[in-house]
Every structure is written in C-alpha cells, then in structure tokens.
Amino acid sequence: MKSEKEKMIAGEYYLAGDLVLVKDRRRAKLLLHRLNVTEYRMTKKAREIIQELIPNAGTNLYIEPPFHCDYGYNIVCGNNVYFNVNCVVLDCAPVVIGSNVFFAPNVQVYTATHPLDAELRKTLENALPITIGDDCWIGGNSVICPGVTIGAGCVIGAGSVVTKDIPNNSLAVGNPARVIRELNV
Q: Are 157 and 139 in contact (CB under 8 A)?
C-alpha cells in the first residue's frame, strides 16, 4: 500500500493532513523562515539553507527572498536557475526545471490541484507535475498551472497564465497563454 507521500508525488488523491506530509511542510517552513527572515540576502548561510531546502538542484541556484514552497524536495533544478523576489512553487508533485532558467518577480508555479467534486474536495487533493525546459525566461506575475510542460528556449510574457503545454522555442503570452511566435529559428 502506498504512503500518502507516495500518492502525492505520483499525482494520485492523497490526504494532505497526513502526519509525514505535515512534518515535511513544517520543516520546509522553518528553512524558509531562516532564508526569508533571518538571512534575507545571499550569504554563505543562505546558500546552505537553499541546499538543504532544495537538495536536487544543480550549481548556481540563486533565490532572491522572499521565496515560498511546500516541500522543496520535489523541486529539481539544472544549473544557473534564478528566482527573483516573491516566487511561489507549490511542489506537491515534481517541478523539474532545466538549466539557465530565469523567473521574474511574483512567478507562481502550482502543481497542487483539487477534485472538482465538492465531497472529495473536503478531504482529498492531488497534484500534477510541471516541467520547464532549458533556457527559459518566465515573465513577472506569470502563473504556471498543474500538469504543464514548457519546452526549451521559451519566453512566457509577464502576467501570463499557462494552462497548456508550450512547445520548444515559443513566445507565449496572455490569459490563457497562447503561442504568438517561434523563437530562435
């Protein structure tokens, strides 16, 4: 039988109030408090906190506080990833980020979702993974919805809401985000 954590990561319905998940979120919040309040600037100590919070990151992960996430361990980053101020990553499912990816201020990445059925929603939730390819720039105040893949070489315009997959080398803008042209061709 799968644990609630295994169900969560697999995209199945799970109980968010599970004691293991509550403990994991509490651990992440304590690390985020240290990063966002105690350090608040990129110091050696802040880099150590980020490494503990997001252990599956390549080299040069840079986060401008404040930053928010649910667990941290479900975020996988390549090299040279930059989060500007006030980014949120709800990482109930895996969030896989390539190398050389830049997030402008206030970007929100949501794997978390909920059942449409009101009765199920009272007790269960689920999450769908998000993938962002290499060499992407995600514009300020953009929202990336559960289950989305953004291909390599993409630019997502400021204020966009990405509800569907975006192919490689695309400029996508709007709500919902739509590809308006190819890039790097």
A: yes
> Which whole-number Å values give the CA distances from 46 to 107, 120, 131, 158, in the listed order?
21, 40, 26, 28
Q: Is 30 within 8 Å of 50 (Cβ atoms)?
A: no
Active site residues: 114
| Nearest to 91, CA basis, from 106, 66, 77, 74 | 74
Distance (Å, whole) CA 21 – CA 58: 25
Residue 185 is predicted with a pLDDT of: 64
Q: In the prediction, which pLDDT does 40 show?
A: 84
Angle at 60 between CA 84 and CA 87, to 5 degrees: 20
Q: Confidence class of residue 165 from pLDDT cuts 50, 70 and 90?
A: very high
pLDDT at residue 42 in the model? 83
